[in-house]
Specification:
By secondary structure, this protein is of the alpha+beta class. 33% of the residues lie in helices and 35% in strands. It contains four helices and seven strands, in the order E-H-E-H-E-E-E-H-E-E-H. The radius of gyration is 18 Å and the shape is globular.
Length: 149
């Protein structure tokens, strides 16, 4: 399993409650572009419409811009492949107040491109500061343990 892209801001700005895995419906040049690591998940999210899941605002630039089709859209809507039961579960959860679906990372699994997304709740500014303080304290503890050990 090789991680191709990660949405690091999502871990900072949101509290991830649950994680899900989905396949992506892509064109050939999008697959090549993603496998070369050229996908940007910042600002993207997952929407549920008509019993289907879609990835919105994920930027996948053309593999070879000069050979790209005239109407190529790097930010187009991309369908996610999920079981019907997973979609029903997500529809119920996403209707709760304050919960959203965010892409966390894109990776390959047995030569297939997969998207890991999470059910998330937004963090307040105070909890973000607490998170940073906790990380700093943990880092200092690790540093001290390495020096003594």
């Amino acid at each position: 399993m090789k991680t191709l892209s990660e949405n690091k801001k999502a871990y900072y700005n949101y509290e991830i409650l649950e994680r899900f895995e989905a396949g992506l419906v892509l064109t050939g040049q999008e697959v090549k572009s993603i496998k070369s690591g050229r996908i940007n998940l910042a600002g993207s999210y997952v929407v549920l419409k008509d019993g289907e899941a879609f990835l919105l605002n994920a930027n996948v630039p053309a593999y070879q811009p000069k050979n790209a089709p005239q109407n190529y859209d790097a930010n187009r809507l991309r369908k996610l492949l999920l079981n019907r039961s997973e979609i029903k579960y997500l529809i119920g959860k996403s209707q709760q107040k304050g919960l959203t679906l965010l892409p966390l990372r894109v990776y390959t699994k047995r030569n297939r491109i997969k998207l890991e997304f999470g059910l998330a709740r937004g963090r307040k500014r105070a909890s973000k500061k607490e998170l940073l303080k906790k990380r700093d304290i943990d880092r200092e503890i690790e540093k001290e343990l390495k020096l003594r050990g």
